[in-house]
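User: I'm writing a tutorial on reading structure tokens. Could you give me a worked example: one chain, its sequence, then its tokens, then a sentence or two explaining what the tokens reveal?
Assistant: Sure. Here is the example chain.
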Amino acid sequence: MATQVSTTVGEAIADIVSGSTLAVGGFGLCGIPDKLIEAVAESGATDLEVYSNNCGVDDHGLGILLSLGRIRRVTASYVGENKEFARQYLAGELEVELTPQGTLAERLRAGGNGVPAFYTPAGVGTPIADGGMPWRYATDGTIAVASPPKETRVFGGKRYVLEAGIHADFALVHARVGDTHGNLVFDKTAMNFNPLAAMAGRITIAQVEELVEPGTIDPADVHLPGVFVQRIVRTGPQDKHIEKRTISTTEGAA
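And here are its predicted structure tokens:
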């Protein structure tokens, strides 16, 4: 299917409806599809299930959807600096599946490559494999929904746990450069999770800082081929945000 060039972010995400599942790229606040997320917030879609490394911060990225109460469930590897995320989880307002970061990355990649499941040693001998992880709390602090046990097998004398690949209705990603055929180039750390999330989406929507004509990008520089991207929209240079600012002073400085 040819990549569709959208004129606005609102047009690009117009068919994301309540109850949709979203794979969202980025790492912390680096390379997150902020304009697409803002457009989803404006659309009014709710009851969303999100797969992402983390959930932004209280006032940026996925934290916007979270603060509006639009997210029902999150599969992530890091809670991050989002206090509202922690509050909703502990209050029983949000279902959370915490998973090892490498496992999450491979689940996204597997889903995008048509691999239904895979075995990994990560999590063996812990509640990740044995079950009992609190996915959702009740209002009284008890566990309302716990993770089920997962299948384990022994290969070469070592135990492994079976993890399922991830398929999402939509994937939202950010790239530095893209062409009108959907080929994408990511910038440094922004490559973390963006290509993987893009692969896992049945419909992948990319916001790009620069949109160019086919042939402009050297094929050797393409990080994600356009076959994985169904829609692309130019959003211009991205504002840089810092997730956690730490400032030190030099002793004796004026």
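What the tokens reveal: The helical segments are 9-12, 34-43, 62-67, 83-90, 101-112, 127-130, 194-200. The chain has a mean pLDDT of 93.
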